Amino acid sequence: MAHSLHEFVRRKPFLLCVDSDGCAMDTMNIKHFRCFGPCFADEWGLGAGRDAALKRWNEINLFSMTRGINRFLGLAHILTELFPDDQNVAAFSRWAQTSKELSERAVEAHAAGNPVFSKALAWSRAVNKAIGELTDEEKTAFRGVKEVLEEAHKSFDIAVVSSANYAAVEEEWARCGLLAHVDVLTTQQDGSKAHCISELLKKGYTPRSVVMCGDAPGDERAAAENGVLFYPILVKDEEASWEALPAFLDLVKEGNAKGEEARLKAAFLRDLGGN
User: Fold this and answer.
1) Mean pLDDT throughout 150-155?
2) 191-246, pLDDT tens digit by residue?
3) Of the residues 71, 140, 175, 275, which has the fewest C-beta atoms closer than 10 A?
């Protein structure tokens, strides 16, 4: 398996890109309920407003059209709501909206000049520690993922395209026996999902031979920006979505996936309260 976009070499005519949290891994809810939200409330010392802030955190990151956004974008979103007149928060939000790299490394480069960046870095590291303390039983793949990836790998190169922390993604996929069916692992340090897909296309795939499989609107946008196909994993119906993926991949190989993609996209948007 290649550990970077630079190392990766195309071997098959088709490419399946797969998101991690909430898509292949049944880890989205527990990480936000137990790690991201509580660590945010702790770092910003939220007292009486803690419960309301945690509820809003989950709405932003799990139960709306912003589901699955990068951790620093999610942080900027809620900080802007809670502290609308704070100029340091405004500066952090502008950075999050425009930066090509949304990672701890990128945040650390600004930490000395703005206390919000410093707190964001401390929060992110606390999140990583909290995720690391979750038990293996609390970080598992959805049922059927391993088998579907194993079969798909016969015809498709497979790339993990995630905005999560590299070490966490690698550990979880290895422990669940999924890395044997993965050709390249891309995470937040490699840039946005749209950027990663763009770089993967340069390896020689045609857009119609590439599928982005994800559970969040950001995954759909990353696919659309690159003109590749999108296959949604529906929230609360993840296992059925994975069960149906092989039939969709057959349509991709036949060049007949557009109609089914449109139907699935409509169901996906309804599921998250979109148009």
Assistant:
1) 97
2) 889 999 999 999 999 999 999 999 999 999 999 999 999 999 998 899 999 999 99
3) 275
Using a 10 angstrom Cβ sphere, with 0-12 exposed, 13-18 middle and 19 or more buried, the burial of residue 158 is buried
Which residues is 210 bridged to in the sheet? 15
Are the C-beta atoms of 30 and 61 separated by less than 8 Å?
A: no
What long-range pairs does 145-150 form, CB within 8 A, spacing at least 24?
A: 145/24, 145/176, 145/178, 145/242, 146/176, 146/177, 146/178, 146/181, 148/242, 148/243, 148/245, 148/246, 149/16, 149/18, 149/24, 149/178, 149/181, 149/182, 150/180, 150/181
Residue 260 has pLDDT above 60, yes or no: yes
**pLDDT given for residue 274 in this prediction:** 56
Does residue 180 contact residue 39 with C-beta atoms inside 8 Å?
no
Domains, the chain, in order of start with CATH, read: 14-26+142-271 (3.40.50.1000), 28-132 (no CATH)
DSSP 19: -
* Cα-based angle 14, 16, 17 (whole degrees, multiple of 5): 140
Identify whether the C-beta of residue 41 lies closer than 8 Å to the C-beta of residue 246.
no
Nearest to 195 by CA among 175, 167, 168, 223: 223
Q: By three-state DSSP, how is residue 239 classified?
A: helix
**3-class SS letters over 73-138:** HHHHHHHHHHCCCCHHHHHHHHHHHHCCCCCHHHHHCCHHHCHHHHHHHHHHHHHHHHHHCCCHHH
The pTM of the full predicted model, rounded to 2 decimals, is: 0.81
Helix (H) or strand (E) holding 158: strand 156-161
